[in-house]
Design brief:
The protein is an alpha/beta fold. The protein has three domains: 95 residues, Beta-grasp domain (Ubiquitin-like (UB roll)), CATH 3.10.20; 100 residues, Orthogonal Bundle (Fumarate Reductase Iron-sulfur Protein, Chain B, domain 2); 140 residues, Rossmann fold, CATH 3.40.50.11810. Helix content is 38%, strand content 16%. The chain is built from 14 helices and 13 strands. A five-stranded mixed beta sheet has the order 2-1-5-3-4. A four-stranded parallel beta sheet has the order 10-9-11-12, sandwiched between helices. It has a two-stranded antiparallel ribbon with strand order 6-7. A hairpin with a 2-residue loop joins strand 6 and strand 7. The chain is globular.
């Protein structure tokens, strides 16, 4: 079986370009061909395209994979409209070729306490390192891979537990900045390991006096939803990790409202970072809410009450962090159900 792919590919050459740009390509490949054939075809059509010959990983539609993935599995998961990007665009030297010095720089934090077996394990996490969601918000983050190595070393009984924890516990760019999310083509779940590490350390409260004042002002900054009917309303759902996105979207359609899609609907919103890295938490929350707003949402349904309470409690600080008002009413799933049945009173959320 063959698949015709429509490709949007990232171009950048640090020696000649000021900004990156994209070019469009079309190609037909067999289902059993591998992902590297996509890159070869782009290169054949445009000699300025570049990708690494070793340690090849890159992004397709924001998921990290290597060159061995089959076209059939890619199409089954992502469809035939694909965007090709380097794993981290800000580290690109030439298209998909990146400066990856940061990978071993992070390993150096634990190298004095590591064995050759530990090093081999870390090197196997190359893709995991560059799939770290936190890099989108903090370019100096140490990466998820070194945190997984730290957990493994401690679990294996390392006598250097205290030193290992100290090495990965920078209050800004270390463990405190990690809200683990899986951005790999083949899902890997490491939340348990990250939570275990967090339980071993005490994170200082980094909330400032001004942040605490801003929290008391958050209620005044919230926006209410005043319409009595959902018909024709543009509604987005922030589902986080609740798995309720499709369910809520189906209900929106049933009420003759319009579903607003946005890419962060199932991403972390920063809630688990509160009290450890508030500045980063506010940035993730603001990015999530603004993406929904800018996609056209007039109402945001938040399915997890803990996420909703975080948005509500810190709304003023979230707006301050992004330097912009976010005029988007937020409602719980329960309130959304009442709105569907015309039971909800006008509420300030």
């Amino acid at each position: 079986m063959q698949h015709t792919l429509n490709i949007r590919a990232f171009f950048f050459n640090a020696k000649t370009d000021y900004l990156p740009y994209y070019k469009n390509f079309s190609m037909t490949l067999n289902a059993d061909a591998t992902a590297v054939e996509i890159l070869k075809s782009i290169k054949t059509q445009n000699k300025d395209f570049a990708y690494p010959s070793e340690k090849l990983i890159f992004k397709l539609n924001d998921l990290v994979l290597d060159g061995n993935e089959t076209i059939g599995s890619i199409v089954a998961k992502l469809g035939t409209a694909l965007q090709v990007d380097p794993v981290l665009s800000y580290r690109s030297n030439h298209c998909l070729v990146i400066n990856d010095e940061d990978f071993m720089k992070s390993y150096a934090l634990l190298a004095p306490y590591a064995t050759q077996e530990d090093k081999a394990y870390y090197e196997s996490l190359y893709a995991t390192h560059y799939a770290s969601e936190t890099f989108k918000f903090s370019h100096d983050y140490i990466g998820d891979a070194v945190l997984l190595l730290a957990h493994r070393m401690i679990e294996n009984g390392s006598e250097y537990k205290a030193s290992i924890l100290q090495a990965v516990s920078d209050p800004y760019d270390g463990l405190a900045a990690c809200e683990y999310e899986n951005n790999l083509f083949h899902a890997q779940e490491h939340t348990v390991e990250i939570e275990a590490l967090n339980s071993m350390v005490t994170h200082p409260d980094r909330s400032s006096f001004l942040d605490k004042i801003a929290t008391t002002l958050s209620k005044k900054a919230l926006w209410g939803f005043e319409k009595k009917s959902l018909e024709g309303v543009q509604i987005a759902c922030y589902a986080g990790n609740t798995g309720m996105l499709d369910h809520v979207n189906e209900m929106i359609i049933e009420k003759n409202a319009k579903v607003v899609h946005f890419s962060r609907a199932k991403k972390g919103c920063g809630r688990t970072l509160i009290g450890k890295q508030d500045n980063l938490a506010y940035l993730k929350a603001a990015t999530t809410l603004l993406e929904a707003l800018d996609a056209g949402a007039e109402l945001l349904v938040v399915t997890d009450m803990d996420d909703l309470e975080m948005f509500r409690k810190h709304f003023a600080s979230i707006q301050k962090r992004i330097g912009r008002e976010i005029p988007l009413p937020l409602v719980s799933y329960e309130t959304f159900l009442d709105l569907c049945e015309n039971k909800a009173e006008t509420e300030v959320v």
